[in-house]
Write a structure and sequence with these properties.
With 160 residues, the protein is an alpha+beta fold. It is 29% helix and 28% strand.
């Protein structure tokens, strides 16, 4: 069974993870633990309970904000005119061996669920993502993410 866990260098084999995007591999191998320790982001991994040390996929969450002018006109009517607090999913990747299993969709669901729970403690309007290319942008749009007005590669998903 798949399980989402907070990344732990003592339990999870980060060096064995390879998604095919060097920047994402390097992040997990070299920087994830440091950034978590410094409070910059939190890394969540997806593992199978049959092999709990093997990272199948991961994503990061951190605090963020978006200028209300980046949102749709209908949303701006309901919001203050200053930057709106949000969560940011900074990275999302799945191991090459896990392609085609729908883990990207699982991770988005996990991230949204985690943000909804955190929203009970800390105010946040939406989940932001930065698409690296048009293919990534289309992926996020399939799940309801909306491009920001002046930065269409940054997308948001209202959490309301």
């Amino acid at each position: 069974m798949l399980e989402e866990q907070v990344f732990d260098t003592r339990r999870h084999e980060r060096e064995a993870f390879h998604c095919g995007v060097p920047a994402l591999d390097d992040y997990l191998h070299k920087f994830a633990a440091q950034q978590t320790a410094k409070g910059i982001s939190t890394v969540f991994v997806l593992v199978d309970d049959a092999a709990p040390s093997k990272i199948l996929a991961f994503y990061t969450l951190s605090a963020a904000q978006v200028d209300a002018q980046q949102l749709t006109a209908m949303e701006r009517k309901k919001l203050p005119r200053y930057p709106v607090p949000c969560f940011r999913m900074g990275r999302l990747a799945r191991d090459i061996e896990s392609r085609g299993l729908g883990l990207g969709e699982v991770l988005i669901g996990c991230a949204v669920d985690r943000c909804l729970h955190a929203r009970n403690l800390v105010g946040a309007y939406a989940l932001l993502v930065d698409a690296k290319d048009e293919k990534s942008k289309a992926f996020y749009e399939r799940y309801g993410f909306i491009p920001c007005a002046d930065a269409p590669m940054t997308l948001y998903l209202p959490l309301g």
